[in-house]
Amino acid sequence: MNSIYVVLWILIIQVNCQNKTLPLQRKHHTATFINNKLYILGGNVIFAEEDKKFVGKGFFSLDFSTKFKTTQELSWNDMTNDNIVPAHSGATTVKGVDDKTLILYGGSHFKSERMSLIYNYDTIDNRWNELNESYPHRSGITAINCDSIMYLFGGFSKKERTVNEMLYLNLQTLQWGIASSINGPDPRMDYGAVLLLDKNIMYLGGRRGPKSSSLSQVFLYNTTSDKWISRGTSGSIPSNRYGFSAVL
């Protein structure tokens, strides 16, 4: 039976840092699980001054290929020297079509630096590549990979506004497209999103500016029919929120 590890990024497990570089505490980073390894990249330093808000180019992984106890220490693998992605936050990542590639999209960065729209990282060859695309650059998005198509809803645009457009990228052909937004959520970022077993993508929560969205309503995007529906929720409904994780 395969073990599934859900890692919430407040490290409850001790990390062995002897002779290793310890990643800074961070938020708005990406965490991608590929072939029993968790890859951590980007993010903001917590409580940092505005001009020093990015954590830098640190790129780290944790190996979960062997069983461990929650009381034992885990050891970081520092891959910063191989990283070509500028310091950034608010990007999003998915696993590529070959189950060995990490795809990174968007994010915010220093205006003095150039950052490509998309990067891919080969976890076997330990090599980064950048794709210079002219499509919209956004941050605060959760990417969903369904049948080798990466869906990107909403987010914060470079024009400093929150949008509700649904973009998609075919990860095999690298062709972009725009899906329907009719009956979809209002503009938002920092929402939760999860791919359901019936290939619908569920979106919930998020924010537009400082105002967070209610969890009394969820939106379902059908990747087959390109249509949206909304559903009300019941029971003990959690408070409005954004910046949370959603795992199926």
Automatic annotation (TrEMBL):
It comes from Funneliformis caledonium. Residues 1-17 form the signal peptide. Keywords: Kelch repeat, Repeat, Signal. It comes from the Eukaryota. Gene3D superfamilies: Kelch-type beta propeller (2.120.10.80). Pfam families: Kelch_KLHDC2_KLHL20_DRC7 (PF24681). The lineage of its organism: Eukaryota, Fungi, Fungi incertae sedis, Mucoromycota, Glomeromycotina. InterPro entries: Kelch-typ_b-propeller. The keyword Repeat applies. This is 8712_t:CDS:1.
